[in-house]
Request: fold
Amino acid sequence: MKKDLFDLTDRVTIITGGAGQLGQQHAEVIAGAGGIPVLADIHLDEVDPRSPAFKEHFGQQACAIQTDITSPKSVRTLLEDVLKRYGRVDVLINNAANNPKMEKTAEVEFSRLENFPLKQWEADLSVGLTGAFLCSQVIGTEMAKQKRGVIVNVASDLAVIAPDQRLYRKAGLPADQQPVKPVTYSVVKTGLIGLTRYLATYWAEAGIRVNAISPGGVYNNQPDEFVSRLANLIPLGRMAIADEYQAAILFLCSDASSYMTGTNLVIDGGRSCW
Ligand SMILES: NC(=O)c1ccc[n+]([C@@H]2O[C@H](COP(=O)([O-])OP(=O)(O)OC[C@H]3O[C@@H](n4cnc5c(N)ncnc54)[C@H](O)[C@@H]3O)[C@@H](O)[C@H]2O)c1
Reply:
């Protein structure tokens, strides 16, 4: 095998939602392969680009740029800033999404389809789907000019299966008040697979590869009952550890996946094959 297939030396990689739980994991593996992660997030409280810890985790050249991916202006400013700092952009990871933790929240009634507020529908689609479209449009167009680039869309196992609403049931609540995974999560994640196929074919001749990754649930101190119910639905018998998607992200971002485009890489402990 050629030694440098996974090498990302100096490849500038914009990660939306880069300050979140998985965004930081993506940034870390990009940096580890020699790339330059740009953490683009609306909330930068979780990362301080001036701290020694930031450089330690994400490399000397990494940066964090406050960005609202639902705003075309903010996304254009992000690209301008990146081009000013580094002169080009090589990889875009569309990772940001509203990520409702139904297993943790007490206010659950709104989640049911019958009550789901239009405002929430619009907000969720705006981040998860419109945000990915805008970033792809603005940053992908720049990559097309360069005749080279990679886009990775972060979907979910819920892009390929329906949520099992039994996971979220709470004892003592009547059926019509039981919490559910909101409809928007399925719609956003399935929509991202469509966006992946569209962009992969649209920009194939421009040298841009576009793939999706569909992770299963990551353990993050969820209630024990939820964790054991979910583990029962997963052939490998457990939730993912946060760093278990790093290798797949590196594969999709690097030349190791040079003959792969328009595909969805499902990494879910086997959940979707049961
Ligand atoms: N954690 C999981 O179990 C899991 C499983 C499958 C898929 N995913 C997907 O992985 C991705 C990352 O998940 P996570 O667990 O790290 O979520 P997270 O909530 O920790 O991170 C999401 C980040 O997106 C940012 N964001 C929200 N709106 C934004 C906007 N308008 N502009 C820019 N940034 C914005 C948030 O500030 C946050 O830092 C999401 O797309 C999620 O759906 C996560």
The longest strand covers residues 208-215. Helices lie at 21-32, 52-58, 72-86, 118-146, 183-202, 224-231, 246-253.
